[in-house]
Amino acid sequence: MEKRIITAALTGNWGDKSTNPALPMTPEEIAEAAYACWKEGAAVVHIHMRDEKGHPTMRVDLFEKTIELIREKCDVIINMTSSGGHSLDGMASDETRMLPFRKLKPEMGSFDCGTLNWLHQTIFENSPKFLEQLGHLMQEVGCKPELEIFDVGMVDTAKYYLKTGVLKAPCHFQLVMNAAGGMAGTVENLVYLKNQLPEGSTWSATGISRSHMPILLATLALGGHVRVGLEDNVYYSKGVLAESNAQLVRRAASIIREAGYEVATPAEAREILGIRK
Ligand code: ZN
């Protein structure tokens, strides 16, 4: 695979301007960051919303506004989180998490293949009932699931859902390494995880915080696509905050080209991922 897709994860559920002043929070800031990342080579932007107080939320109006602003500027693939609203107070309700998918029918959305303890502080809950409903809903609205994997057993859960029809092959996996509570971000773990994926799948990986660069480099060597962005890593290098999401995309694009691969455009990424246009 010579074309590599860069996904930019612009804003997660955690952190704010005090974590990194460049973290985009409002629809305007998120759309601006998406456009800047697209200019640097991101084919996909993975987006979370924040309310006026900066709290994570699944509010449809905020997603709608952000998508509208991004679409005015570029054709980047928009990948909506389904885990927004997750805070120390717990998860948003299943219905709240699914509503933006029903209403906005995004091209792509995250599908977290199981529940885990999160940051050693709270539970990141994705119940069987929720995942079954979300998987069927995504098929109904033509949304390509990005199967986020935080630990090995989650790949087996994805395989189970392939058998039961909750998911349809070919799958696209996002291996999220080094989330506290999930699998450590080592190259050895990445190789193992990659080898468990169903044949014919596409895959991408990201390393949280200090595993960011090792996982990026190993993923490229193993033939995967990459994810970067302030959701996963607010630093550019040890102790130095990233200036922007776009700066992280620029570095990834440069490494991809230096390694002799090509950076996939959104149109090429749609082809690779089998996304309807
Ligand atoms: Zn996310």
Structural classification? alpha/beta
Averaged pLDDT? 96
Q: Report the total helices.
A: 9
Strand coverage percent: 15-25%
Please tell me what the overall shape is. Answer: globular
Give the total of beta strands: 16
In the predicted model, the low-confidence regions spanning at least 5 consecutive residues are none
Termini separation comes to 22 Å
**Helical percentage:** 25-40%
Give me the side-by-side strand order of the main sheet. 2-3-6-7-10-11-12-13
Radius of gyration: 17 Å
Report on the structure:
The chain contains nine helices and 16 strands. β6 (77-80), α3 and β7 form a beta-alpha-beta unit. With 277 residues, it is α/β, with parallel strands linked by helices.
Characteristics of this structure?
38% helix, 277 residues, 8-stranded parallel barrel, 9 helices, binds zinc ion, two-stranded parallel ribbon, globular
How would you briefly describe this protein structure?
The protein is an alpha/beta fold. It contains nine helices and 16 strands. Strand 10, helix 5 and strand 11 form a beta-alpha-beta unit.
